[in-house]
């Protein structure tokens, strides 16, 4: 029997920097992410239900990586919301990258509402051995 | 009566959820309330639409069954295994199997249930069975 899903699933609202106001009236949620580090890259996987490859924006400004997903809520026609357990809104999450990431080779893909970012590590400068000569 | 049915549905789905959410905001505790996956329910006289967010699984991995007034959604999501000696820095996404049943205030016409899965969101349209629809009774005057 597979492990039962008991993890926290309630959507958390994203942290928006003070002084910045939004022009859209929807809520913004912080997507749940898995971050794993492999030998050659770092992988970020984010749950963003309702987002596809056209509605996700990834920007890299200096060292700040921002993920933003726009969700167009689908409202069933002639029906009213009787009961809601989750909210629908945009997604935003901000990460700081270190120098070890090769910015040019970042890959992003979306499938079934899950964003996958692959951040390859930059090749480190090869270590140089400095020969020490004995002074005569 | 439809109203009491809905009240019952609401109480089955945990009336303290709002309160717990509020409470969690202060204490930051990790108590999970509300069964997976979370449902939103839309209603009109003859149809109920249930939506739920289950990102990261294929449509074929979701199992919907309808029996009378109850609708069950089952499925599971696997965790991605770390390869090549990798390690997790953060692990917030849920995984595992889920199963949830809700009761609709009327009998569902199982043959006419429509389900759509797009971008990780499941939409189920559950029409009311013809036999369950209210009948208008004509009153004759003597």
Structural features:
heterodimer; A: mainly beta; 5-stranded mixed beta sheet; elongated; disordered N terminus; B: alpha+beta; 4-stranded antiparallel beta sheet; 2 helices
Low-confidence stretches of chain B: 21-33
Total beta-strand segments of chain B: 8
Strand order of the largest sheet of chain A: 1-2-8-6-5
- Please provide the ordered H/E string of secondary-structure elements of chain A: EEEEEEEEEE
Provide a compact summary of the structure.
Helices cover 0% and strands 40% of the residues of chain A. Chain A has no helices and ten strands. In chain A, a hairpin with a 3-residue loop joins strand 3 (33-37) and strand 4 (41-47).
Which SSEs are present, and which pair or pack?
The complex is a heterodimer of chains A (136) and B (142).
Chain A: E1 12-13, E2 27-30, E3 33-37, E4 41-47, E5 56-61, E6 64-69, E7 80-84, E8 89-96, E9 107-111, E10 114-120
Parallel strand pairs in A: 2-8
Antiparallel strand pairs in A: 1-2, 3-4, 4-10, 5-6, 6-8, 9-10
Chain B: H1 2-12, H2 17-27, E1 39-43, E2 47-53, E3 63-67, E4 70-77, E5 87-91, E6 96-103, E7 114-118, E8 121-127
What do you see in this structure?
The complex is a heterodimer of chains A (136) and B (142). In chain A, the strands form two sheets. In chain A, strands 1-2-8-6-5 form a five-stranded mixed sheet, with no helix packed on it. In chain A, strands 3-4-10-9 form a four-stranded antiparallel sheet, with no helix packed on it. Chain A is elongated and about 95 Å long. Chain A has strands at 12-13, 27-30, 33-37, 41-47, 56-61, 64-69, 80-84, 89-96, 107-111, 114-120. Chain A is an all-beta fold and 136 residues long. Chain A is built from no helices and ten strands. With 142 residues, chain B is α+β, with helices and mostly antiparallel strands. Chain B contains two helices and eight strands; from the N terminus they run ααββββββββ. In chain B, the strands form two sheets. In chain B, strands 1-2-8-7 form a four-stranded antiparallel sheet, with no helix packed on it. Chain B has a three-stranded antiparallel sheet with strand order 3-4-6, with no helix packed on it. In chain B, strand 7 (114-118) and strand 8 form a beta hairpin. The chains are: A mainly beta (136), B alpha+beta (142). Chains A and B meet through strand 3, strand 4 and strand 7 of A and helix 1, helix 2, strand 1, strand 2 and strand 5 of B.
């Amino acid at each position: 029997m597979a492990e039962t899903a008991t993890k926290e699933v309630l959507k958390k609202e994203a942290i928006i920097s003070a002084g910045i106001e939004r022009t859209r009236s929807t809520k913004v949620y912080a997507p749940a992410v898995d971050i794993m580090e492999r030998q050659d890259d770092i992988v970020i996987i984010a749950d963003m239900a309702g987002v596809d490859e056209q509605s996700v924006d990834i920007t890299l400004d200096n060292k700040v990586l921002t993920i933003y997903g726009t969700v167009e809520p689908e409202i069933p026609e002639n029906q009213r919301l009787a009961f809601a357990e989750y909210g629908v809104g945009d997604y935003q999450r901000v990460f700081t990258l270190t120098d070890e990431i090769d910015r040019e080779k970042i890959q992003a893909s979306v499938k079934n509402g899950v964003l996958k970012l692959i951040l390859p590590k930059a090749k480190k400068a090869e270590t140089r051995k400095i020969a020490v000569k004995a002074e005569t | 009566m439809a109203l009491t049915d809905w009240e019952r549905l609401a109480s089955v789905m945990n009336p303290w959820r709002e309160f717990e959410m509020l409470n969690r905001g202060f204490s930051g505790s990790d108590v999970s309330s509300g069964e997976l996956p979370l449902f939103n329910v839309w209603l009109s006289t003859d149809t109920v639409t249930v939506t739920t967010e289950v990102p990261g699984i294929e449509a074929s991995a979701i199992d919907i069954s309808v029996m009378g007034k109850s609708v069950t959604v089952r499925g599971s999501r696997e965790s991605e295994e770390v390869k090549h000696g990798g390690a997790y820095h953060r692990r917030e996404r849920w995984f595992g199997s889920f199963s949830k049943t809700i009761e609709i205030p009327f009998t569902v016409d199982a043959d006419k249930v429509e389900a759509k899965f797009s971008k990780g969101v499941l939409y189920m349209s559950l029409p009311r069975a013809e036999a369950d629809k209210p009948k208008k009774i004509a009153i004759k005057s003597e």
